[in-house]
Design brief:
Number of helices: 12
Low-confidence stretches: none
Helix content: 25-40%
Structural class: alpha/beta
Bound molecules: iron/sulfur cluster
Strand content: 15-25%
Length: 334
């Protein structure tokens, strides 16, 4: 049973079947009906940390354009038709460096109950593709979708969508440790994108996320079940002993599974827009991860070039040292 302080429901979707289904899995202290979720979610200067500790849930309808072109700060993994969509806002986890704290003033969880409208827009987009083109759609944006699976069931629905639409590649990114689907088997065009970080980085900055050992076990099981796996070592966070930590992370991966069975790797150093960084620093006044003296380039806060280069080269070389096929083109960098 999921427990919430309050649940806010848009009038428009109060009788939606998914609203009822989600409510059947929740307990709460009060329910409020509202016209539009932004009246609660969009209020300025809310206490995000208090709200994250005392979670409320907002159920709403997503409207307008529901598929967006990927931002230049996101890795597109060489895909031309790169889109993302957001069926939830905010996360069960609490990474100190998370851009969501730079983007939103509210810590409550939002679920858009009308995911079928997103599917319909994705289908329309697929119809417009030229012969041989595929749509790449990242669906765990602005949240960690797997962490809410027992509440929303959205990863399962995306898997079904991927199974029925082979012209789409669906990416679900997580800092959790999901289990492979034993009953229906894995779908090749569903990409399980695991973000892996050294345990010391998880302990310091990625609160409530799955431990590294659990994430690695989950990757190994997913690969054995025939699942398509991407490993993201992104963002690499600067700490004094980063080389030692990220080196031993890659050594642990290579001991647990065959590096060459991973579809590809995404490597990137921490980066965030200057505007988001200002708000993130207000939300995280004591976090070493966000108070690094970044350089500003083209409106983004980044590590100095030489440090970025060292981190990326070191990480990709270490991964390649375990690859028998030595195919450098499986590494994408941000
Ligand atoms: S898992 Fe991702 S979305 Fe969730 S808090 Fe961490 S960085 Fe943010």
């Amino acid at each position: 049973m999921w427990s919430f302080n309050h649940i806010y429901i848009e009038n428009d979707i109060k009788d939606h079947p998914r609203t009822r289904e989600i409510l059947s899995k929740c307990s709460w202290h009060g329910i409020f009906y509202i016209d539009r979720y932004l009246k609660i979610f969009g209020r300025k200067k809310q206490d995000i940390h208090f709200q994250m500790k005392n979670r409320s849930l907002i159920l709403a309808r997503a409207s307008g354009e529901l598929l967006y072109r990927g931002s230049p700060m996101c890795q597109d993994y060489g895909r031309k038709q790169f889109y993302y969509t957001s069926t939830m806002k905010n996360c069960l986890y609490d990474c100190e460096y998370c851009y969501l704290k730079g983007m939103y003033d509210c810590g409550y969880i939002v679920i858009f109950v009308n995911i079928e409208d997103v599917f319909a827009q994705a289908e329309r987009r697929l119809d417009l593709l030229a012969d041989g083109e595929r749509m790449y759609l990242s669906v765990s944006f602005d949240t960690d979708l797997y962490s809410f699976e027992s509440l929303s069931g959205y990863c399962g629905l995306w898997k079904k969508f991927a199974r029925e639409h082979t012209g789409a590649e669906i990416e679900i990114r997580t800092k959790g440790a999901p289990s492979p689907d034993g009953d229906e088997g894995e779908v090749p065009n569903l990409i399980h994108a695991y973000t892996l970080s050294p345990q010391q980085i998880i302990d310091r900055f990625e609160h409530n996320t799955a431990p590294l050992s659990a994430r690695i076990r989950s990757v190994a099981r997913m690969l054995s079940s025939g699942g398509t796996v991407r490993i993201c070592i992104d963002p690499i966070i600067y700490v004094r002993d980063w080389k030692e930590l990220y080196g031993s992370l890659i050594d642990s991966m290579a001991r647990a599974f065959d590096i060459d069975r991973v579809m590809d790797f995404g490597i990137g150093t921490f980066r965030i827009s200057r505007e988001y960084l200002k708000r993130l620093r207000r939300a995280e006044p004591h976090s070493e991860a966000v108070w690094y003296p970044f350089e500003i380039k083209d409106g983004y806060a980044v590590y100095p070039d030489t440090l970025q280069e060292q981190m990326i080269l070191f990480t990709s070389d270490r991964i390649m040292s375990f690859s028998k096929s030595r195919k450098n083109d499986i590494i994408f960098r941000a």
